């Protein structure tokens, strides 16, 4: 990066360290923190939408929706996360390529033969000739979906519980005013349930932050991958040889995750307070007494 | 008019790209000097140079992909990439699930390394990388096998006393000799049938192309030159 870094073997002390920490590889490491943050930024809202849909479906008066909602919650919550993370991306990838192969291949034979999954080159997603970046975005997309499905189920359960926790008297009053079921949901139930949902959702957010290293399992070059790669012993074959430094790299990750969770706690505490305002809950009552 | 020329140019370009066959080369990126990630974050090493050369000879467009060693065969089979070029020895066990080209590196010597020159290699704890021929050999030798995900973990295990010795490809161990008192111990053991490029059994056309290119490089001696460049003058070569 810097002019002075062109000959690493001549460097010592601080200038060696400065050059070492600005190699192309380290830039990829710093960039991978962005990947984790992007994953969180996309997964959290998508999982919330999944959860919202699941909770509404589970409460629905129509039995097919009810079955779908309850089934989704029960199934995903019951299967170990890691199995789901390994299963969803592979199943989706092969499923999509299988469907595409039926559409675009001239002579689509059986896709699963022996121990191989084989479709014609034109049915590959992304195409084999696409730049590596598309492959990475695609893999990342599959990971986001896997995360969203899993955390969506937990969110659905939290929201379902929160909807049940809204005092029945509130809903009855709304019904007495002649509101339809949809109107009751929209005007009374949903605005009030957030106060009950936030503690559960904030818990889920914390777990989601801590689950991001699972990206590494899905073959995505995230912070854990780079920490392990950069920290590993570097022999003389590398421009910047050093002994096993994984401990220090993982220490950096530890600090990163602690900062993330601390920051989240502060923000979530404020959101919690804001939502409790004027609610018929113990927290809302405490705010009222304090004269806020 | 300008737009038309531009469109035509783009069409021409993309058509050209589509015509050349693209081969995705899968490697581990954690096994220097065979393959590793250099300081710019690119795949480098003996296999990178060899792979690029073979692709050039056969007119293939090659891109490089890294994958964990543990799942390198399953991900080849499910089509994430088209070849495994990752210092993988040709063994009967692996030939049951995938095909190999002819060897591009002769059967390499594996060696033990330890901090204790009098270590008991038959009865002690020996570290090896999971799923390698060395791990299989240790299991048969009577020593207690301690498996680790990467080569680096096996070295770390010896250094912190979890294992008495490490057993791995000698070439991969050479850089660690002399660090923290690590030295080669015992006899070298030749294992496997050499190192080849792993391919899906259905990819016979690609296998033929690589076989042909490797034969050419063996014939004109350029393969031996490349081996010597990465593994030193004393390295095993093809006659």
What can you see in these coordinates?
The complex is a heterodimer of chains A (292) and B (239). Chain A is mainly α. Chain A has a single domain (3-7, 14-289), classed as MetI-like fold (Orthogonal Bundle), CATH 1.10.3720. Chain A is built from eleven helices and two strands. Chain A has helices at residues 13-20, 24-59, 63-78, 81-104, 132-165, 168-176, 181-211, 214-217, 223-231, 246-276, 282-289; strands at residues 112-113, 116-117. A two-stranded antiparallel ribbon of chain A has the order 1-2. Chain A is flat. The mean pLDDT of chain A is 88. The N and C termini of chain B lie far apart (61 Å). Chain B folds into two domains: 10-106 and 193-231, Periplasmic binding protein-like II (D-Maltodextrin-Binding Protein, domain 2, 3-Layer(aba) Sandwich); 109-190, Periplasmic binding protein-like II (D-Maltodextrin-Binding Protein, domain 2, 3-Layer(aba) Sandwich), CATH 3.40.190. In chain B, the strands form three sheets. Chain B has a five-stranded mixed beta sheet. In chain B, strands 10-9-11-8-12 form a five-stranded mixed beta sheet, with helices on both faces. By secondary structure, chain B is an alpha/beta fold. Chain B has nine helices and 13 strands.
